Amino acid sequence: MKNNEPKLVEKEKIVAEKLNGRFAMMGFVALVGAYLTTGQIIPGFI
Predict the structure, then answer these.
(1) Whose CA, among 16, 23, 26, 41, lies 20 to 30 Å from 33?
(2) Where are its TM segments located (predicted)?
C-alpha cells in the first residue's frame, strides 16, 4: 500500500528542531572559544 498524501508535521516540532539546532551551534562556538582561549577542550580538566 502506498500513501500519496504528504506527511504533515506540527509547527511545534519544526520550531523545536530549529531551536535545538541553534543551541547546538552555540555550544560548538562556545567549545571552540574555550579551546582557543585556554588551550583545553574542557577547561579545568587535564
Answers:
(1) 16
(2) 21-42
Q: How many domains does the chain have?
A: 1
Buried b / exposed e over 1-33, threshold 16 CB at 10 Å, is eeeeeeeeeeeeeeeeeeeeeeeeeeeeeeeee
pLDDT at 1: 58
Higher pLDDT, 34 or 20: 20
Write out the residue range of the structural domain in which residue 32 sits: 12-36
Is residue 1 a part of any domain in this protein?
Answer: no
CA distance 23 to 29: 10
